[in-house]
Amino acid sequence: MRRLDLDRDGEITEVELSKVLKSVENQTIMDAVETAIKKIAAGGEDYPSMREYVKALIKKFDHNSDGLITFQELSDGLKKIQIFLSQREKQALMEKLDLNRDGEISADELLKILKNTDSRLNNYQLATSVTTVVKRLLEGSEKFSNLREYARHLIRKFDNNSDGIISFQELC
């Protein structure tokens, strides 16, 4: 309840629910990006150095052989190495890897990120069960045009007395 009731008044409003959903959505995207980077880095274990691995990755991803990875090349390359991300997750990954923000990933940029990555994939438990519940709630949001509309739908679903807010009793 505390995680959803941002103003601590004992009630969950549409605005509060929308903010929490957006926050969890952003965290979910960043978790996917970090996991993807760790998976990419883990592939370097079979190479003599991370620099050699990055050269091989660039070659594998780079369709036009210009030594740089565009967003489309990144998207296609991820599929080749069995990493599947949503469009938003791929965009966030591109932003993370494109350190100089020129729209392309160079070998130096990729090397900097991968060298600073612990390639051991750690399956960690989420900090609280509330985060897990909110993530599950978020799964239904794709049917709606925005999170605010989805939050409105959830309020109506749980709001038994039709007062526009969710009380602790209604939530349980």
Helix content: 55-70%
Summarize the main sheet: 2 strands, antiparallel
As a percent range, the share of strand residues is: under 5%
> What is the top-level CATH class of the largest domain?
Mainly Alpha
Tally of DSSP β-strands: 2
Low-confidence stretches: 119-128
Spell out the CATH superfamily of the largest domain: EF-hand
Category by helix and strand content: mainly alpha
Q: What would you say the CATH architecture of the largest domain is?
A: Orthogonal Bundle
Within the CATH hierarchy, at the fold level, what is the topology of the largest domain?
A: Recoverin, domain 1
Gyration radius, in Å: 20 Å
Strand order of the largest sheet: 1-2
Continuous helix count: 8
Order of helices and strands: EHHHHHHHEH
- The N- and C-terminal alpha carbons lie at a distance of 10 Å
Cα shape: elongated
Number of domains: 2
Average of pLDDT: 86
Textual characterization of the structure:
- This protein is mainly alpha-helical.
- It has 2 domains: 11-25 and 127-171, no CATH class; 34-115, Recoverin, domain 1 (Orthogonal Bundle), CATH 1.10.238.
- Helices cover 56% and strands 2% of the residues.
- The longest helix is centred in the N-terminal third of the chain and has 29 residues, at 14-42.
- The termini are close together.
- Residues 119-128 have low confidence and may be disordered.
